[in-house]
Amino acid sequence: MSIKIDTHREIDAIRLTLTQMLEERDRLFPKRDPQNTKNTRETLTAYINALKSIKKPNWKPDDKLIESAKKISENCVFICGYMKSGTTLLLELLDGHQELIVMPGDSRMIAWIDKHSNMSWIECLKGWDTHWVSRLINPTGQKPFWIMGENETPYLDFLNYLTYWLDNLPQSARGLFLAAVLAFYCANSRRATTPKLWIEKTPGNELNVKQILNLFPSARFIHIIRDPRSNIASLKRLFKVRNWSWDTEAYAYSIRNSIEIGFLNQERLGEDKYHMLRYEDLVTNPEAKIKNVTRFLGVKMNKVLLSPSVNGLPAKSNTMFEDRQIQGKIFTSLTDKWKTELDSQEQKMIWAILHSVVNRLGYNWNVGFTKWIYYLYYYQIRFRHFLLRILSRAKKN
Q1: First vs last C-alpha separation in the chain
Q2: What's the total number of domains in the chain?
Q3: Three-class SS state of 367
Q4: Distance between CA atoms of 71 and 66, rounded to whole angstroms?
Q5: Helices 8-28 and 34-53 sit at what angle, rounded to 10 degrees?
Q6: Residue 273 and residue 254: Cα distance in Å, rounded?
Q7: What is the reported pTM?
Q8: d(CA 89, CA 250)
């Protein structure tokens, strides 16, 4: 698909086409249509190139916004947790608070930095503006889209402020990401009026705490954890609808690793820097748990924190189950969909791998008089892994 931009009218036409593609993507969620994905990416690229083509060389930043942004550059919180554990819900509940700058969607900061770690500064900058403008247009793959409005002005402002900050911050991984944060704040008409800190979210942040602290030494962390049975059931459904290969045992071990690292992070950093939160507590008693989060963040409690949003616009639930997809509200009832999504063998495997960890989290996985069967399965897995290690060592020798 090749699209040439000549006028603002043509930009409007591309925006309309792109919106229709995004609407279709949302309608299909959680499924993906390869052709829709391809067309959406191409049209996004065309739109962003159009914005770059009409940037004005005489643009100047707002000095008051620049000074305000500088004051909060060091104050940041990173949301941690496994994929489909509730990280998106937590991010969207914190959105809209007038003391918080909440970056939209998953920024994948560490992945981007790792990918470009051996590249020059010029090479690092390639695609960084496109990456972020696309997040401002389509942050989650679901409504809302165009989170700074459908007029091109705020997106042009973002590109201009991004260039400004990249020119004025150190040429480093820290400067690269911080430029996007501060540009979003400066260009956003719905920006926080009394900003105290900014928030980033990417599933798996708990695995990169040391690297994050090297970039932002004063960073704090909120780690959300979900009952692994529900977490794995949601993941399995996602993989199924997208025709991805699935391995229950591998993901059970991966989730256990995420939780264990979370406990280790909290022990090392202390509860004042690393806050752990259960998803189930958040959705069944949101006001009390959000109050705890605001105390951790050092911001005022506000009712806006009880309604999920993206840059102040009502957010659609990021769930694999259609009957739970509501907009602008927390789905407050818990379900046992894992009982139908996971067969009996998978349930035994998950218990065998994770029961010791979830006991520490306070989950009651009561399996009644059949508990001995689960323990039998647990020792079967342990013995199989022991044999695999022996065989692996034998091959090396």
Answers
A1: 55
A2: 2
A3: coil
A4: 9
A5: 150
A6: 24
A7: 0.89
A8: 25
**At which residue do the structure tokens 């496109």 appear?**
130
Residues 49 and 74 reside in one and the same domain: no
Same domain, 210 and 107: yes
Does 241 map to a domain?
Answer: no
pLDDT in tens, the chain (397 residues): 445 445 678 889 999 999 999 999 999 888 889 999 999 999 999 999 888 888 878 899 999 999 999 999 999 999 999 999 999 999 999 998 999 999 998 988 888 888 888 888 889 888 899 999 999 999 988 899 999 999 999 999 999 999 999 999 999 999 999 999 999 999 999 999 999 999 999 999 999 999 999 999 999 999 999 999 999 999 999 999 999 999 998 999 999 999 999 999 999 999 999 999 999 999 999 999 999 999 999 999 999 999 999 999 998 766 545 555 555 566 556 668 898 999 988 888 898 889 888 888 988 887 654 665 666 666 676 677 667 667 767 676 6
As a whole number of angstroms, the distance between CA 158 and CA 185 comes to 9
Domain that holds residue 28: 1-54
